[in-house]
Amino acid sequence: MKILVTGSTGFIGSHICEQLASEGHQVLALVRKQKKWENLSTSCSCSAKKFKFITPIFDSIDPEGSWAWIDRLPADLDVVVHTAGVVHSHRPSEFYRTNLTATSILVEKLKRKYAFNHKLKFIFLSSLSAAPTIKSMPVGHYGRSKLLAEEFLIKNAPSNWNVEIIRPPIVIGPRDPQLLHIFKIVKKGYYFVVGPNGEMNQYSFICVYDLVKYVINQFTQKSSSSSSSKSSTSPSPIKINIHHPAYPSTITYKEFHLEMAREQGVSSLKKITIPRFLLKPVAYTISALTYICPPLSKVPLTADKSKELLEHTWLVPSDSDSDNDNYSNNNFKWNLNSSVKVTIEDYNQRGLLN
Ligand SMILES: NC(=O)c1ccc[n+]([C@@H]2O[C@H](COP(=O)([O-])OP(=O)(O)OC[C@H]3O[C@@H](n4cnc5c(N)ncnc54)[C@H](OP(=O)(O)O)[C@@H]3O)[C@@H](O)[C@H]2O)c1
């Protein structure tokens, strides 16, 4: 199959590219930063060999970009896996700019090229954050930007496309830049908890290897309509499925941190509790200060993140149908222990936990 992957130097996108290449697919990888691509494809790991079979397209989905690269895509493209997105930012506008505006432009440009007589499969990496909470809307700008992009796709994708919207929960695995700081803090022997019961907060999770298989299964399975998990969306003439893949058992905040500690040989972990009422003011102050002190933009606690941290649960919906349960129970192999272990191995190999 001929497959375009956006965000191919990212955590999830790089694993998708790697797996597709090892299965013999023809992969076109949209790459924004050439240096990152070179690091992936020239390192001496076995991954590097797989990256040599992938064709990079050095460009971006920047709203102000030329988008001329779309014209050069092959006429017989089978699949687009859209993983490019902004997951961490102190500025709300950045979420909307890339996750919504750039995604909308991508869909419109692809539509112009592939609208007629072309059965394109469009896989969109959304997020569990886009799932409406009890408050009926996503809690933060990140989730809202993803939800609005989903809605754009539902309204605007041509009827001959198949659209699969994937809403992963926390993704754990090698190359993850987002969880690295938590692993580092745990290695020092402590961890932060929000509020008195914060350590009992509950999460769904998935290992990146299981997620990649799930994503690829969406376009390699024999009957795409029968074995995927589906939440029905608003009436639409086109076939759109929303998926909530997750490892069958959930974890608490405490279990996750204890696992990180155990696998790093940390015998005692000191808990530092941040009062719930303090989290937002601290996070908003940091985000505001990034305007006058840009290095602060690397601080993982953002105003947007603080809203997510105040939620007690981040669980995939329990009403996802039994096909999903069957798929998860039979195919998701990576539990918390093995996911954490393989992540630490990767960080250690790259000297990131020293
Ligand atoms: N990680 C998770 O736990 C998780 C959970 C749920 C959903 N997701 C979703 O999964 C997708 C991938 O996440 P990730 O964890 O792999 O994030 P990531 O490592 O930050 O990767 C994001 C990718 O998007 C690319 N990108 C961002 N803006 C771009 C632009 N304007 N043009 C072209 N490329 C652009 C980045 O390029 P550079 O490499 O050049 O920076 C990077 O390759 C995201 O859409 C995210 O919302 C992730």
How many alpha or pi helices? Answer: 12
Beta-strand portion reads 15-25%
Largest sheet: 7 strands, parallel
Integer-rounded radius of gyration:
20 Å
Runs in which pLDDT lies below 50 for 5 or more consecutive residues are 223-232
Mean pLDDT: 89
Total strands: the figure is: 14
Order of helices and strands: EHEHHEEHEHEEHEEEHEEHEHHEHH
Helicity, in percent?
Answer: 40-55%
Strand order of the biggest β-sheet: 3-2-1-4-5-6-11
Ligands in the model, by name, code or SMILES, are: NADP nicotinamide-adenine-dinucleotide phosphate
Key features?
354 residues, alpha/beta, binds NADP nicotinamide-adenine-dinucleotide phosphate, single chain, seven-stranded parallel beta sheet, 40% helix, three-stranded mixed beta sheet
Task: Please explain how this structure is put together.
The protein is an alpha/beta fold. It is 40% helix and 16% strand. It has helices at 11-22, 34-42, 46-51, 92-114, 141-156, 180-187, 208-220, 253-263, 276-289, 303-309, 322-331, 336-349, and strands spanning 2-6, 26-31, 55-58, 79-82, 121-125, 162-166, 170-172, 190-194, 202-203, 205-207, 239-243, 251-252, 270-274, 313-314. Strands 3-2-1-4-5-6-11 form a seven-stranded parallel β-sheet, with helices on both faces. A three-stranded mixed β-sheet has the order 12-9-14. Strands 7-10 form a two-stranded parallel ribbon. Helix 1 crosses helix 7. The longest helix has 23 residues, at 92-114. The chain is globular and about 60 Å long. The structure holds NADP nicotinamide-adenine-dinucleotide phosphate (NAP). NADP nicotinamide-adenine-dinucleotide phosphate (NAP) is lined by residues 7, 9-13, 32-33, 36, 60-62, 83-87, 98, 102, 125, 127, 168, 170-171, 177-178.
